[in-house]
Amino acid sequence: MKAEETITTALGGGVGVSPLGSHAFLDEFALAYHRAVADRLRAEPSVVLEHARWNLDRWTEGDAFRPGDLASLEEWWQILDEAGVGRLVELIIDASDEGQRLRSSSPFVGVLSPEERMEILAACEQRATV
Amino acid sequence: MNREQLFDLTERVKLVAGVELPVIVGSQPLYAVTPHVPDIVKRSVECGFILLAAGPSAFRAVIEQIGFASSFQETHGYYHRSVAARQTRRGEAYGLGARHDDADHRHTI
């Protein structure tokens, strides 16, 4: 066995690595989740926006974050205050690096039910393993 | 993400994935050097880990329980992002292990 193969095997990175353990998969999952959120946002904008603001409220007022840690949450406050529904949909399903960055701190978690989230996760896993 | 959030996630990763020593990757290992990390580190609400020798069930479990859009993230505002060792992006190779000392409740990374 070559040295490189030895190291890879020791790290558990050999054949059989789960597709779930890749950046590409996790990025695709977040995008797929937000595509479903976008549909909900178009259909029930006030409900979805209220949930997003409720999340930001709880996170910023709780003990987990300190004043210096709030930049990404404050960025979302500003977006929610300034962007219309159409612009929000564009932002959360933007496939660019910037869209990905915004999704990583999304306040739209919980807009979908746990069952809907699991269905999206399963669909992404199925696509990744085909 | 602050230091407390990082250690909270580390402990949860160990429990959920059954991994004794998850490896922290990305920018968060800077907490091993100084508590005064740049703002760009603190503004992230996710932390990346490498799960060594973890199988599909471990990755699925961490996504389901403490990953993106999980009830954990909805409750706490931050979440976990695990990748396999060979899936790390260039520049992530400076990850450090994290250890929790039960004797005096201190963490070292």
Report the major sheet of chain B.
4 strands, mixed
Average pLDDT figure of chain A: 88
Helix content of chain A: 55-70%
Mean pLDDT of chain B: 78
Strand order of the largest sheet of chain B: 3-2-1-4
Q: In terms of per-residue confidence, which ranges of chain A show pLDDT below 50 for 5 or more consecutive residues? A: 1-15
Overall body shape of chain A: globular
**Approximately how much beta-strand content do the residues of chain B carry?**
15-25%
The backbone outline of chain B, from C-alpha atoms, is globular
Assembly of the depicted chains: heterodimer
Give the structural class of chain B. Answer: alpha+beta
Largest sheet of chain A: none
Order of helices and strands of chain B: HEHEHHEEEE
Radius of gyration of chain B: 13 Å
Number of helices of chain B: 4
CA(first)-CA(last) distance of chain B: 15 Å
Structural class of chain A: mainly alpha
The fraction of residues assigned to DSSP E strands of chain A is under 5%
Q: Overview of this structure, please?
A:
The complex is a heterodimer of chains A (130) and B (109). Chain A is mostly helical and 130 residues long. Chain A has helices at residues 3-10, 23-43, 45-61, 71-82, 85-92, 97-103, 114-129. Residues 1-15 of chain A have low confidence and may be disordered. By secondary structure, chain B is α+β, with helices and mostly antiparallel strands. In chain B, the strands form two sheets. Chain B has a four-stranded mixed beta sheet. The longest helix of chain B is centred in the N-terminal third of the chain and has 15 residues, at 3-17. Chains A and B meet through α2, α3, α4 and α7 of A and α3, α4 and β3 of B.
Question: Which short descriptors sum up this protein?
Answer:
heterodimer; A: 130 residues; mainly alpha; 7 helices; 0% strand; globular; disordered N terminus; B: 109 residues; alpha+beta; 4-stranded mixed beta sheet; two-stranded antiparallel sheet
